[in-house]
Amino acid sequence: MHGDFARRADVRILDRFVTVALPRVRDFRGISGRAFDGRGNYNIGVKEQIIFPEIEYDKVDALRGLNISITTTAKTDEECKALLAGFRFPFKN
Questions:
Q1: pTM of full prediction above 0.85
Q2: Any idea where the Large ribosomal subunit protein uL5 C-terminal domain is (predicted)?
Q3: For the segment 69-88, what is each residue's pLDDT rounded down to a tens digit?
């Protein structure tokens, strides 16, 4: 049961990132299709932590960026991109 719960939580986190946080990025035009590591994982940089609605802007003393690494069981970058596309990741051309 623990593994199933963890997987469902992971899916919810990815969904919220794609549907809630990414659209809040200023001048958002999609994410890069080049940020794969060659082993089926994806990395994305975010310039401001305030894209996450859980963060209260009034309590932020400074804007900070962060890196997000998405580790998958995909063996290739193509498999990873297909997986993330299934989660509606908005890749640029």
A1: no
A2: 11-91
A3: 999 999 999 999 999 999 99
Domain residue spans in the chain? 2-86
User: What secondary structure, in 3-state letters, does the chain show?
Assistant: CHHHHHHHHHHHHHHHHHHHHHHHCCCCCCECCCCECCCCCEEEEECCHHHCCCCCHHHCCCCCCEEEEECCCCCCHHHHHHHHHHCCCCECC
Residue 29 buriedness (CB in 10 A; 0-12 / 13-18 / 19+): exposed
Which residues contact residue 3 at a Cβ distance below 8 angstroms, ignoring those fewer than 6 apart? none
- Please list, in sequence order, all residues whose beta carbon lies within 8 angstroms of the beta carbon of residue 11, skipping any fewer than 6 positions away: 87
**Architecture of domain 2-86 in CATH?**
2-Layer Sandwich (3.30)
Other Cβ atoms within 10 Å of 90 Cβ, number? 14
